[in-house]
## 1
Amino acid sequence: MPRQSEENGRVADGEVLLKVTGLQKHFPIKKGLLQRQVGAVHAVDGLDFEVRSGETLGVVGESGCGKSTMGRLITRLLEPTGGKVEFEGKDITHLGVTGMRPMRRDVQMIFQDPYSSLNPRHTIGTIIGAPFRLQGVEPEGGIKKEVQRLLSVVGLNPEHYNRYPHEFSGGQRQRIGIARALALKPKLVVADEPVSALDVSIQAQVVNLMDDLQEELGLTYVIIAHDLSVVRHVSDRIAVMYLGKIVELADRDLLYKTPMHPYTKALMSAVPIPDPKRKNAKSERILLKGDVPSPISPPSGCRFHTRCWKATEICRTTEPALVELRPGQQVACHHPENFEDQAPQDTVLLSAAKEAAELVADEVLAESAQTSEALATAVAEGEVGTEEATASADAGTEEAGASEEAAASDESAASEEPEASESSEQADEEAEAPEEPATAEKPAVAEKPAVAEKPAVAEKPAASED
Ligand SMILES: Nc1ncnc2c1ncn2[C@@H]1O[C@H](COP(=O)(O)OP(=O)(O)OP(=O)(O)O)[C@@H](O)[C@H]1O
Ligand code: SF4
Ligand SMILES: [Mg+2]
C-alpha cells in the first residue's frame, strides 16, 4: 500500500500512484444484421507500467498505436477488456459510475483538441465550474470566485468569466481546458496531446504553464504525444508504444542517450535535435518503410518485426517480454541496441527485414554533399558535358524542392505537429525515392557522375545537422 502524506492525503513523492498490469482494450468489430462479432481492434494489448507521485511520464508512439485508448483506460473513461488499474493501491479497473465518483476528483484528463472539447453553448464560467457542480463541491468563497482564481492561475483574464469558447484562441482554449482539469485539485492529470493542435509559439507557453502548475500543485502527469520532441523537456520517464504495446520504458536521459529498442532509435533519429553542440555529432537517420500493421491482426512474435532491420527468425515467432536490461530502462527486444546482444552476426536476418528500413549514415550524406558541390563547381566552370549538365541541373532543382519539403517536415517534427515524424519520414523517402538512395554499403555512388542525379541526398546534411 503506498505511503500517504498526512497533511493532504496524497501519496508521498516517488511512491507508486498508479499501477497498470496487463491492461487490454479490444474494440469489437461487428457485422451483419445480428451484429455478430467478427474480430477486434487490439488497440491496447497488455500494458504494464507504474506512475509515481510527482513525476511526469511521457507516452509516445505513431498514430493509432493506442496512446489515447491507454489514457482513457487509466482515467476510466473506457472499460478495460482485461488487466488491472490500481490508483493509490485501490483496484479501480471495473468501478462503476458511483464507485468512480470520488476518484474523478483525483484523476483528470486534458484533451487534445481545444476546439471540440469545450461546449460552445456554455460560458467559460460554466465550463470551469462544472466539476464543482458535478461533484457537489462548494469551494470557499463560492464557485464564481474559485473559477476566476483558476482563470488567473492559467494566465487568463478573470473578467472573461462570461465569455464563450469561440471568443478565445486555441492556446487560450487549452488553458481553459487545463483550468477545468485542475478545478478539483487532482492528483493525476492525463494530458492527451495537450499541445499538438496549437501553434508552435503557443505550444511552449502551454507546456511551461503545465510545468509550473506541476511544481505549484504537486501534480503527477501522464503526457501523451506523437513524437519524442514534445515529451523531451517535460518527462522524467518515457514509454514508447508500438501497436498497443510498450516496447521501451526508460528514464528520459537514458532513452535519449542510449535508446535500446530499434523502434525508439528510429523514432529518435527522425526528430531533429536543435542543439548546436551536436551539430557535427555522428548520427544515423533511420527511415522506416511501410505502414504500421493493422491492430486487427498484429504481426506474430515481435510486432515490430515487419519493419525492423534487425529482425531474425526468433523475432517472428516469439514475443519479447518487457524486461529491465539496465537500471531504469525496460526494453522488449531480442536484439536490443546499445547492448551486448546486438544483431547477432551468425543469425540470418529475415529477408523482409532487410528491406524494412534504410540506414543513412551522416558520413555518407556528407560525402555525397561534397561530391555534389564539386560537381556544381565543375558545371559552373563548364567541365561537364552539356547533356549531363542539363540533366544534373534539372535533377538538382527538382530534388532541392523535395528536400526543402523534407526540411520543412523536419521543422514541423520539431514543432511537435501530429503526424510530423511520419510525414518527415515520408518526405525523406519521397526525396530519395526516385533514385536508389545512398546507403552505408554503397558509398561508391558518391564517386560516380550519376550522383549528379541524386542531389536529394546531397541536400540531406541540412536535415542531418538537426
Ligand atoms: N471506439 C473505438 N472503436 C473501435 N476502434 C477504436 C476506437 N477507438 C480507437 N480505436 C482504434 O484503436 C486503435 C488505437 O487508437 P488510439 O486513438 O488509441 O490511437 P492513438 O495512438 O491515440 O493515435 P493518434 O496518435 O492518432 O491519436 C486505432 O486503430 C483506432 O482505430
Ligand atoms: S530485433 Fe527483433 S525483437 Fe527487437 S525490435 Fe527488431 S524485430 Fe523486434
Ligand atoms: Mg490519440
## 2
Amino acid sequence: MTNYKYIFFSLILFFCSPLKSGEESLTFHGAYTFETFPKQKACAVYVSIFNNTDKDFIISSASSDISEKAEIHGIVIEKEITKMKKMENLLIQSKQQVFLQPGGIHLMLMGLKHQLKDGSSFDVRFILDDGSFNEIKVMVLNKKMRENFIE
Ligand SMILES: [Cu+2]
C-alpha cells in the first residue's frame, strides 16, 4: 500500500514539477491579423509573447509562406509623425512578456502572395538568435473587428 502511495505522489511530483512542466522556449498566444483587400501588399500580425523560462530570448527574424518578407516593426515618433521602424532584435527577458498589438510593436508581412480572407489562418515562424524557432498559427479576423482593437 505504501508503495502505491509512493508511486502516486511521485506521479504528482512528476506532472507538477516546475522543471518538468517549465517551458524551454517562448509561448505565443492569440496571434491574429485582419483580412486584406484584393491588392493589399502588406499586413500587420499581432500576438502576445510570454517568456516563462529562466533565460532571456531574442527574436532576430521571422518568415511566412504567405509573404515575401516578414519584419518586426517598432513605432517611433519623429517630428510628431508616427513611423514604423524595423527592429533587428526583439528581446523577451526571463519572466517577461511582450505584446505585439495595434499602435505598437507588430510583425509586418510584406509582399503578400494572396488575399487574406476572414476565418482563414496561416503560419508564421519566429526565428531566435540561437537558430531555434517557434511556428505559430495566425487567425485572420474580419475587418469590422478592428474597431474593437484600436481606439
Ligand atoms: Cu509595420
